[in-house]
Amino acid sequence: MSNQITRRSFIGAISASAATIALAACGSGAAEGDAAPAEDGSYTLVKEGQLISVSDMECPPFSSYKEGTSDPEGFEIDMMAAVAEKLGLESVWLPKMDFDGIIPLIQQGGKADIGVANFTITDERAKLIDFTDPYYVANIGFVCRGDATQTSTDDFNAAGIRIGAQGGTTGEAWAKENLPNAEIVTMAPANAMLSVQGGGEGSDALDAMVADLPVVQGLINKSYPDLQILDEIATGDEFGIVVSKDNPALTEALNGALAELQADGTMDSLVEKWLA
């Protein structure tokens, strides 16, 4: 049976996520006032006085460009502005880049201080870079047309079925592992939504797509009312900020700032503004 996500259940999930974030922040050992200013020399920045972030800007309501502009907006945009303020810095964003290129850019250094693109904290990624404490927890949403004849995700595990997922994400990894008979097509969430809406015709058409639940819920509410969330996949993905392993003091400072934002209610306000 189709498992539509209601507004009540979605807000309930957000509340549970906020509670998890609060516990994670408290467990970090950071307390209010622990966020160290850059000028004390405890961490390095690409440019003095600025906290430079990079994102793919493909996942509203977390991060995207305002329609027709290159001005970023979203939960993560506002969150990083608040984090930078705690650190006495200016929040700056590089032009968007492909999701799977962000971690290599942070490893390389010299262009961005951090990657912020609802990165799920995984052991594999943590071998390459450091993560801050989690700032949000989310499941994955499986999306298809509202008039689809399939009634479960298993029904999409068949030859000739095309599933959209953003490259390098946990959604793509889940689809490859659980739908091995389907064709997994790399595509950004908004483009995948459009292709699912187009149905089963044309070279770019998709039968379904997967992405973080808040992303697909937001896109459906805003632009794709003919689509449905067939299933909520309980992955409990924790999102963290990506930092170079060569800059552990920055990770510590960011954790302090995130803890302060949780303690003073800023994070709850941002969740209500962007994700409720």
Short characterization:
With 276 residues, this protein is of the alpha/beta class. It is built from nine helices and twelve strands.
State the shape.
elongated
CATH class of the largest domain: Alpha Beta
The helix-and-strand class reads alpha/beta
Rg to the nearest angstrom? 19 Å
Mean pLDDT: 87
Strand content: 15-25%
Q: Measure the end-to-end span.
A: 25 Å
Low-confidence stretches: 1-38
- CATH overall fold name of the largest domain: D-Maltodextrin-Binding Protein, domain 2
Any idea what the CATH architecture of the largest domain is? 3-Layer(aba) Sandwich
Give the number of DSSP strands: 12
The tally of structural domains comes to: 2
Instruction: Write the element-wise H/E pattern from the N-terminal end onward.
Output: HEEEEHEHEHEEEHEHEHEHH
Largest sheet data: 9 strands, mixed
Helix content: 25-40%
Characterise this structure:
The chain has 276 residues and is an alpha/beta fold. It has two domains: 7-137 and 237-275, D-Maltodextrin-Binding Protein, domain 2 (3-Layer(aba) Sandwich), CATH 3.40.190; 139-235, D-Maltodextrin-Binding Protein, domain 2, CATH 3.40.190.10. The chain has nine helices and twelve strands. Strands 1, 5, 6, 7, 8, 9, 10, 11 and 12 form a nine-stranded mixed β-sheet that branches. Strands 2-3-4 form a three-stranded antiparallel β-sheet, with helices on one face. Strand 2 and strand 3 (63-65) form a beta hairpin. Helix 2 (75-86) runs antiparallel to helix 9.
